[in-house]
Amino acid sequence: xxxxxxxxxxxxxxxxxxxxxxxxxxxxxxxxxxxxxxxxxxxxxxxxxxxxxxxxxxxxxxxxxxxxxxxxxxxxxxxxxxxxxxxxxxxxxxxxxxxxxxxxxxxxxxxxxxxxxxxxxxxxxxxxxxxxxxxxxxxxxxxxxxxxxxxxxxxxxxxxxxxxxxxxxxxxxxxxxxxxxxxxxxxxxxxxxxxxxxxxxxxxxxxxxxxxxxxxxxxxxxxxxxxxxxxxxxxxxxxxxxxxxxxxxxxxxxxxxxxxxxxxxxxxxxxxxxxxxxxxxxxxxxxxxxxxxxxxxxxxxxxxxxxxxxxxxxxxxxxxxxxxxxxxxxxxxxxxxxxxxxxxxxxxxxxxx
Length: 353
Known about the structure:
Elements: H1 3-7, E1 16-17, E2 30-37, E3 49-54, E4 60-62, E5 65-66, H2 91-108, H3 119-122, H4 127-136, E6 148-152, H5 158-165, E7 169-174, H6 177-183, E8 189-192, E9 205-211, H7 220-230, E10 231-242, H8 247-252, E11 266-267, H9 270-279, E12 283-287, H10 294-305, H11 320-335, E13 342-348
Parallel strand pairs: 6-7, 6-9, 7-8, 9-10
Antiparallel strand pairs: 1-5, 2-3, 3-4, 4-11, 10-13, 12-13
């Protein structure tokens, strides 16, 4: 269907629900941030959407929004359906893979191949590259024996495969049956389930990971409490989500890639995310160092603003002025993490005293 026709087609009225109060702090007072938002990313969700921001905690949320029974309409053409392909393309990419594998081998006592022994020495000297690699394996601890982890919203299972290579017993949960079928090919234990209704055993996991999942959930507090329930005491949660107060959102407004209506139902800033984690019972809440991603967000947002498919490899490139602006944003965000494009937080389940 033509995108213009789709965005002018309303979401079924019986498939909408009102959100009269902030889903994090319960405050009714709010301001309208954006109106008339449409799906300019996957071009599969009908309707126009309004995004409000809570006057107390700063969280942003759609009102009205799709109900849990109808939200699947917004995922009919979504990237988690596809098998992951992280094979390096080109000579330089293969060179970087050799270095990456050796860095991980040294850090996790594994034997990933191909690997060049210099990677363990060179990578720590390249601060940004080391941060990127650590984030790609979700800051899995390198001390002690690998345990059991679960990736909720695991998609095609790409991270599950990486975690198993590092010695972890990996579980995954996803609502999408196509994604579950793809993820099961990794050999991990993957089940079809919702969030917060995962069906997972209580106090079973050393680590729970939520990579760009919490913003898709109707009840984020209930979801975080579910993550808390399935963690062992002393275990930890790893969470990544877009940041409403980023430099990219300030620059691109309604065209910022992090909005993604109507799949992103609730969007956080630093204050509201910490409040949500604390409210779910977590302690030792820590934001991990920012890995520069402004160029990707800026390019995607620019393509959205120009009506282009943000994933089209033949669409426009980032012009030099925005390339410089993105580098500047990354530098500023490194000094002021509350303005980064997305957050990565780790929070702990209290250990028994």
